[in-house]
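Hi C.,

You asked whether I'd gotten around to modeling the 467-residue construct. I have! Everything is below, sequence then structure, no commentary in between.
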Amino acid sequence: MSPDIRIEHDALGDVEVPAHRLWGAQTQRSLVFFDIGRERFRWTRPVVRALGLVKRAAALANHDLGELDAERARLIGLAAEEVIAGTLDDEFPLVVFQTGSGTQSNMNANEVIANRANQLAGQPPGTKRPVHPNDHVNMGQSSNDAFPAVMHVAAAEEITRRLAPAVSALHATLTTKARAFDDVVMIGRTHLQDATPITLGQVIDGWVAQIDAGWNAIVHAREGLYEIPLGGTAVGTGLNAHPEFGARATAHLRDLTSLAFRPAANLVAALSAHDAMAAASAALRLLAGALMKMANDVRLYASGPRAGLGELRLPENEPGSSIMPGKVNPTQSEALTMVAVQVHGNDHAVAFANSQGHFQLNVYKPVILHNVLESIELLADACCSFDAHCARGLEPDRARIEAHVRESLMLVTALTPHIGYERAAAMARAAHEQGLTLREAALASGDVTAEQFDAWVRPEQMTHPRG
C-alpha cells in the first residue's frame, strides 16, 4: 500500500484515506459519492466554526455530567478550538449537496476532531485511540440534533457579527444624509408621475424606516435561532443522551459565543422542521426588499443625468460603457438590487425546503443553511459596498430639483383649500394644455391674485400638515 494512503474503517468496511488528512472514512465516502458543485458549494468558515463550537460545548457538557473523562474532554477541547479558530479548515472538504441530515458534515467534524485529538495524545490519525469519533466526540448527539444546532449557531453568529455592523453603518450614513438634506424641497412622485412636494430628507428617512423594519424583523427572527435542539438525538426523544446534556451543552454554547442560546422548547419540532431558519430567511428577504426599493429610487433620481430626472449626483466610480465615452452608470444600485434578487430566490428555496419535512426529520438541512448564510453574507457585503461607494457620496443637484419644483403642476394642491378641488383641477388642466406655468394659468383664470398665489403656493410649506 502506498505510504500516501492509510486505511480507515467504518460500519461498511475499510476505506482508503489520504495519509496526510485528518478526516476519516465517512468523510472520504462523501467525497466519492457527493461530487456535486464541489468548487461552488463547499462549506464556509461560519459552518466549520459552528461545528467546532458545538463539539466543544458537547465535550464540556459530557465532562460536567461525568460521561466523559477529563483527559478525553481536554483533548477534544483542544482539537475543537483549532477547528473554531480556522487552522483546520482544509480538513472540511464536503459540499452542501450531501445527505439531507448533514450526517457527513457532522461526521467530518467528529473524525477531524478525534484524529487531531489523538495526534495531540501522540497517536497517529486513524487509531481512534484514545478518542473515538462516535463514542466520544459525538457522545450524547445524533447528526439529527447536532447539525441543526450548527445551523442555528452559524446563522445567529453571522447575523450578529457580520450583518449587524454592515446594516448599522449604512443606517448611520443615511440618517446623516437625511438631516443634511432636510431643507431640500423636491417634487414627490406617485405612479411615476408628479405629486406634491417632499423634502429629500423625508425621502431618505423613508428608506431608513424601511431598513429599520427589515432589521427589526431579523432581530425578532434571531430569537428563534437562539433555540438549540441538542439533547434530542435521533428523533427528538433524547435517546442515549444524559437528561441534562442538552441544557448543559447549550449553556456552554452561550458562554463560548456570548449569544443568548437556550434549549429548544420542543425537540421533536426542532428536528422535523426548521421554522426558525425559514423565519430568519423571510426577515432577510424583507430587508432585501427595503434595500432594493432604496437602490431603485437612487438610480431613478440620478437618471439621465441630462435627459432623465438628474436630481441626485452619485459618486463616479468607474466608466460605464465600452462604447460610449464619458458614460457613468449607477452600478452600486445595480449590484445591490441583484443581491436583493438573489436573496429573494434563496428565501424561496429555504421556504420550500422547510415545507418538506417528513415524519421526525427534515432532510433539507444543508441547503437551508447554505441559502440562509449566503443571504446574510451577500446582504452584509452589499450594504458595506453601497455605503462606502454610493451613500456617503450622495448629493442633490439643487438647481435641477428647484427647476422641477417650479415646473410642477401639482403645486396646485395648495390652492384646493382656498378655491376648491374643481377650480384647482381646471387651472392645472389649462396650464398643461396651454403650456403655461401654474402661476400663469392661475392668474389667467381670475380665481387667484398674484399676492394670493405667492402666499398660498409655497412648496416648503407643503411638506408637512397645515399649521
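If it helps when you're writing up: Residues 143-180 form the longest helix (38 residues).

Thanks,
B.
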